[in-house]
């Protein structure tokens, strides 16, 4: 299928999903649980003129974490799988990597060691394997990889391992004139090539970790070159900073799934606009994965402990979702 035809059919699918959502009850892949009711009540409150909780359209901003919130992050972060493949591909040219960390951990697929890297280590690996190339070259590599790579458990493209209930939530919020952003510890240039097709979120509404870029002329043409130097880590306390720097105002809703989202949830829900915080709790070992406090990836401990006292809505995947993944996946072809 050509790219233009794929985009056309994707557009039809989005229109069809929107039409169904308008015709049916909202969030059809959600069970009629306390979490679903709380979401619907909150949206009704902030979008109903005259309501004490009414929020003008210009201030209806919601931020979503990506890994473990919008798509599957087990058995490892998707970008880590991408970097692992790149390191393996380049390892023969760098024999020193077999004894140097963090490359040794990647080559030997030492998941406990890789889990300790965090967003900073992941970005450093990305820098080492992609420094010197242009941003367009990197985007082409990501686009090609995301099209071909498969999830080791589900044997589907990673972009087919997105959560149908969250796609519905994104669509539902946009119907009510929310502006949706991704705020992730993952690399911004890794997410931007496919976020629009998969989530309906354009590149300018994706916030993530980044490396520094340098303007150069190559063969007389201006390009942006990726440097082996960190620019920003958009994780934990970095998330509110990234939100302020890019969006310029405090969102009224934040959705996450791990302690890496704690500060974002805290920042959003402590503002003057009665913000709402949602946490996806992975409790379904059959349809997806069950993990929280002891997980190597996407650990949910402090945020889960404090969720009730802070008024955050905990979405129980097993209890609250009728389905996990889309039946007709929004995967780039």
UniProtKB/TrEMBL annotation:
An annotated GO cellular component: cytoplasm
Pfam families noted in UniProt: HAD
Annotated signal sequence range: 1-23
UniProt keyword annotations, A-Z: Amino-acid biosynthesis, Hydrolase, Magnesium, Metal-binding, Serine biosynthesis, Signal
Cofactor: Mg(2+)
EC numbers for this chain: 3.1.3.3
InterPro entries (UniProt xref): HAD-like_SerB (IPR050582), HAD-like_sf (IPR036412), HAD_sf (IPR023214)
Catalytic activity: O-phospho-D-serine + H2O = D-serine + phosphate; O-phospho-L-serine + H2O = L-serine + phosphate
GO MF terms, alphabetically ordered: L-phosphoserine phosphatase activity; magnesium ion binding
Pathway assigned to this chain's UniProt record: Amino-acid biosynthesis; L-serine biosynthesis; L-serine from 3-phospho-D-glycerate: step 3/3
Enzyme class: hydrolase
SUPFAM superfamilies: HAD-like
UniProt key word Isomerase: no
CDD domains with a match to the protein in the record: HAD_like (cd01427)
PANTHER family for the chain: PHOSPHOSERINE PHOSPHATASE (PTHR43344)
Protein name, as recorded: phosphoserine phosphatase
Protein source organism: Planctopirus ephydatiae
């Amino acid at each position: 299928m050509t790219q233009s035809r794929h985009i056309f059919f994707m557009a039809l699918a989005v229109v069809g999903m929107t039409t169904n959502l308008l015709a049916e009850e909202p969030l059809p892949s959600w069970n009629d649980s306390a979490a679903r009711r709380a979401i619907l009540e909150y949206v009704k409150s902030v979008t109903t003129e005259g309501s004490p909780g009414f929020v003008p359209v210009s201030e209806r901003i919601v931020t979503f974490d990506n890994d473990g919130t919008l798509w599957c992050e087990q058995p490892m972060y998707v970008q880590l799988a991408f970097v692992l493949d790149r390191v393996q591909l380049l390892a023969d040219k760098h024999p020193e990597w077999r004894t140097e960390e963090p490359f040794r951990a990647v080559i030997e697929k030492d998941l406990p060691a890789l889990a300790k890297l965090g967003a900073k280590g992941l970005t450093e690996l990305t820098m080492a394997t992609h420094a010197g190339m242009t941003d367009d070259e990197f985007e082409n590599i990501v686009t090609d990889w995301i099209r071909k790579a498969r999830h080791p458990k589900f044997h589907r493209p990673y972009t087919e391992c997105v959560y149908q209930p969250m796609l519905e939530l994104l669509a539902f919020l946009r119907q009510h004139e929310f502006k949706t952003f991704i705020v992730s510890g993952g690399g911004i240039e890794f997410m931007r090539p496919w976020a629009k097709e998969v989530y309906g979120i354009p590149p300018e509404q994706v916030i993530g970790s980044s490396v520094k870029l340098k303007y150069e002329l190559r063969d007389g043409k201006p390009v942006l070159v990726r440097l082996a130097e960190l620019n920003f880590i958009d994780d934990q306390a970095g998330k509110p900073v990234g939100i302020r720097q890019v969006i310029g105002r405090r969102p009224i809703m934040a959705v996450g799934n791990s302690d890496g989202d704690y500060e974002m949830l805290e920042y959003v829900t402590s503002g003057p606009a009665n913000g709402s915080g949602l946490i996806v709790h992975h409790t379904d070992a059959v349809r997806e994965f069950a993990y929280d406090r002891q997980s190597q990836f996407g650990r949910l401990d402090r945020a889960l402990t404090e969720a009730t006292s802070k008024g955050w809505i905990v979405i129980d995947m097993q209890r609250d979702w009728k389905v996990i993944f889309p039946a007709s996946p929004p995967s780039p072809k």
